[in-house]
């Protein structure tokens, strides 16, 4: 067996969705993140040449502990310093966290000490909160909805009661520790009208979603703004 094949076999996991991915991969194989950070910073310099400066945002995925952010941030900062020294160019960037685990929501107050923004990844957060695989839940989801276990597929429409409570807890604790933190949600829920409404009421700064959902998301956001303005006008 070749060295490459042996290495591939050694990386096999029984449950990859809960295995060595996201920030875990960046910490155990830090060269991967070093390479990606360098590419981002070098592209930042190239894109800013003779134009308005670009300020990239680097987001660390699947975080569950502050120490993970500290480790990655130290390496990203070191790469940024190296690229700046080599190029003789100065640039700025923001580093944030994708909140995809229940623990990250609960510990947002300490995690945000190392992050300029928190983006709640509701796809994975829903998966981990429910203990459901979003890739396999379709096999029984229709039966659950038909029998009233779930009102709707939680991967299609944000569960504002369970997952939503984690979002509110994370937002509250994050803001308490860092009032200027930028908050958002990302994933397919970001294109759902009700999810957009929830994000607006919760005071999130923006939502993001798949490209094909963007027109509906913009329309929904505009409609909610108009509705709020009408309510205020009637008071």
Report what the structure shows.
With 235 residues, the protein is of the alpha/beta class. It has one domain (20-234): Phosphoenolpyruvate-binding domains (TIM Barrel), CATH 3.20.20.60. It is 54% helix and 10% strand. It contains eleven helices and five strands. It has helices at residues 3-10, 23-28, 30-48, 66-87, 102-106, 108-111, 122-130, 138-146, 163-177, 193-202, 214-234, and strands at residues 57-60, 94-99, 117-121, 182-186, 206-208. It has a five-stranded parallel β-sheet. The mean pLDDT is 91.
List strands and helices in order, with pairings.
Layout lengths: L2 H8 L12 H6 L1 H19 L8 E4 L5 H22 L6 E6 L2 H5 L1 H4 L5 E5 H9 L7 H9 L16 H15 L4 E5 L6 H10 L3 E3 L5 H21 L1
Parallel strand pairs: 1-2, 2-3, 3-4, 4-5
Helix pairs in contact: 3-4, 10-11
Could you list some keywords that capture this structure?
235 residues, alpha/beta, TIM Barrel, 5-stranded parallel β-sheet, 11 helices, globular
Share of residues in helices: 40-55%
What is the CATH top level name?
A: Alpha Beta
What is the annotated CATH architecture?
Alpha-Beta Barrel
Q: Number of folding domains?
A: 1
Order of helices and strands: HHHEHEHHEHHHEHEH
- Tell me the CATH topology: TIM Barrel
The major sheet is characterized as:
5 strands, parallel
How far is it from the N-terminal to the C-terminal residue, by CA?
Answer: 75 Å
CATH superfamily label: Phosphoenolpyruvate-binding domains
Assembly form of the protein: single chain
Overall structural class, as computed from helix and strand content, comes to: alpha/beta
The shape, in one word, is: globular
């Amino acid at each position: 067996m070749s060295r490459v094949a042996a290495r591939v076999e050694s990386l096999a996991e029984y449950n990859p969705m809960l295995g060595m991915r996201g920030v875990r991969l960046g910490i155990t194989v830090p060269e991967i993140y070093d390479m990606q950070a360098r590419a981002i910073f070098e592209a930042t310099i190239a894109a800013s040449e003779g134009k308005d400066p670009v300020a990239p945002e680097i987001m660390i995925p699947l975080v569950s502990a502050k120490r993970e952010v500290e480790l990655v941030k130290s390496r990203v900062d070191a790469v940024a310093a190296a690229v700046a020294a080599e190029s003789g160019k100065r640039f700025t960037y923001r580093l944030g966290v994708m909140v995809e685990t229940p623990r990250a929501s609960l510990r947002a107050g300490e995690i945000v000490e190392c992050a300029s923004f928190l983006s709640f990844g509701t796809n994975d957060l829903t998966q981990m909160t429910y203990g459901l695989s979003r890739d396999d839940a379709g096999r029984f989801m229709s039966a659950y909805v038909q029998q009233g276990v779930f009102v709707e597929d939680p991967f299609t429409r944000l569960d504002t009661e369970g997952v939503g409570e984690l979002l509110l807890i994370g937002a509250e604790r994050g803001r308490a520790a860092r009032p200027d933190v930028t908050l958002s949600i990302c994933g397919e829920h970001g294109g759902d009208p009700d999810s957009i409404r929830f994000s607006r009421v919760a005071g999130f700064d923006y939502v993001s979603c798949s490209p094909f959902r963007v027109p509906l998301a913009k329309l929904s956001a505009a409609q909610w703004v108009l509705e709020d303005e009408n309510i205020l006008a009637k008071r």
